[in-house]
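Support request from a user on the community tier.

User writes: "When I paste my C-alpha cells into the form, the page sometimes reloads and wipes my input. The last time it worked, I copied everything first. Here is what I submitted, just in case something in the input itself triggers the reload:"
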C-alpha cells in the first residue's frame, strides 16, 4: 500500500483571476482555486497531512500549482502532467448579488483523467478521501474516475467525504441530482451547502435537507449555511453550530475551507459538533480577503479567533 497522507482529495485545480469589487474593473489578482485543491490546502494549514490527485498541464500554470503545493505541504507526488492539455482557469467577479465564476476549463488536463490512470493505492492508504461534485461534472471520463476513486476508498475502508458543490454550467440539474444522490449513498461524510441543496432536493428547511441526505445513507451530514453557521446531523441527533461574525469581502472558497478544516479536526479526534465550530470560524476568516487560497487561515489564527467567539 502507498505511503499516503491522511487526507487525499481528488479533482481539478484552477488558476484563478479575481477582480476585486472595489477595484478599477481592469485589475485582476492572480491566485489559485479549484474546490478540491482548496480543501487539501485548508486541511494542511490546520496541521493535517494532506495530498492531492489530479492532472495539470505542461504549462506555467501547472508549474505554479506544483510550487504552491510544495510550499503548502500538500503531497503532490502522484499528480500527473498531461503532455498537451492545459491547466484550467477560473475568473471571479463580484457584485451586490455575490461572486460569479467564469471558466476556461473545457478539455483541461484534469477533465481528461481516466480510471486507468487513477492512483487507487494512494487513496487506499489514506484515512479520508475527499471528492466534490464539480470533479464529477467536468467530463464523462472524470466522472468515471471519481466513481473508481470512491470504490477504491470503500474497498479499503477509507472514509469518503463528499461536497455536493453544484455548478449548473457544467451539467443539467436532473443529471446532477442523480449522480449526487448516488454518491451521497456511498459517502461517510456529506458536506452539502444550503443553497445547492435547496436546488438539488427541492426542499427549503435545513432540517428537511439533513433528513433527506441521512435518508440516502450518509451517516454524518454537515450542512453549510453560510452566515447562519452549520447544522451537524446524524441518525442519533443534530446540533446547530452558530456562525462566527466577520466583515466578509469574498466568499470564494469558504465552503472548501470549512470542508478541509472539518476533516482536519475530525482526524485530530474532535467530535463532529466541535469540529464544525472550528470549521465555521476557519470558513468565516477565509472570507475576509480576496481569492480562494490566500485568505485560508492557519490553525493559530483559527484558535485565536475561537477564544473570542
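"...and here is what came back when it finally went through:"
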Amino acid at each position: 500500500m502507498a505511503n499516503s497522507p491522511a487526507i487525499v482529495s481528488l479533482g481539478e485545480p484552477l488558476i484563478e483571476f479575481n477582480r476585486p469589487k472595489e477595484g478599477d474593473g481592469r485589475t485582476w489578482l492572480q491566485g489559485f482555486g479549484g474546490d478540491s485543491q482548496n480543501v487539501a490546502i485548508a486541511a494542511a494549514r490546520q496541521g493535517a497531512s494532506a495530498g492531492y490527485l489530479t492532472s495539470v498541464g505542461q504549462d506555467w500554470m501547472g508549474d505554479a500549482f506544483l510550487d504552491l503545493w510544495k510550499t503548502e505541504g500538500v503531497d503532490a507526488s502522484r499528480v500527473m502532467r498531461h503532455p498537451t492539455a492545459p491547466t484550467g482557469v477560473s475568473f471571479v467577479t463580484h457584485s451586490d448579488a455575490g461572486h460569479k465564476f467564469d471558466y476556461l476549463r473545457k478539455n483541461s488536463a484534469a477533465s481528461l483523467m481516466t480510471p486507468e490512470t487513477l492512483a487507487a493505492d494512494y487513496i487506499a492508504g489514506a484515512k479520508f478521501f475527499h471528492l466534490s461534485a464539480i470533479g464529477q461534472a467536468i467530463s464523462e471520463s472524470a466522472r468515471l474516475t471519481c466513481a473508481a476513486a470512491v470504490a477504491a476508498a470503500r474497498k479499503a475502508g477509507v472514509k469518503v467525504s463528499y461536497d455536493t458543490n453544484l455548478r449548473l454550467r457544467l451539467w443539467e440539474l436532473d443529471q446532477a441530482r442523480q449522480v449526487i444522490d448516488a454518491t451521497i449513498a456511498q459517502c461517510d461524510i456529506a458536506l452539502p451547502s444550503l443553497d445547492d441543496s435547496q436546488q438539488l432536493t427541492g426542499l427549503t428547511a435545513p432540517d428537511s435537507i439533513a433528513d433527506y441526505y441521512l435518508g440516502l445513507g450518509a451517516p454524518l451530514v454537515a450542512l453549510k449555511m453560510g452566515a447562519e453557521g452549520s447544522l451537524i446531523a446524524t441518525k442519533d441527533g443534530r446540533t446547530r453550530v452558530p456562525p462566527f461574525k466577520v466583515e466578509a469581502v469574498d466568499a470564494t472558497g469558504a465552503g472548501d475551507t470549512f470542508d478541509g478544516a472539518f476533516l482536519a479536526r475530525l482526524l485530530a479526534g474532535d467530535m463532529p459538533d466541535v469540529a464544525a465550530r472550528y470549521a465555521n470560524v476557519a470558513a468565516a476568516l477565509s472570507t475576509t480577503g480576496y481569492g480562494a487560497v490566500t485568505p485560508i487561515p492557519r490553525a493559530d489564527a483559527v484558535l485565536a479567533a475561537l477564544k473570542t467567539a
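Agent notes: The reload is a front-end session timeout and is unrelated to the input. The longest strand covers residues 88-95. The CA atoms of residues 77 and 277 lie 32 Å apart. Escalated to web team.
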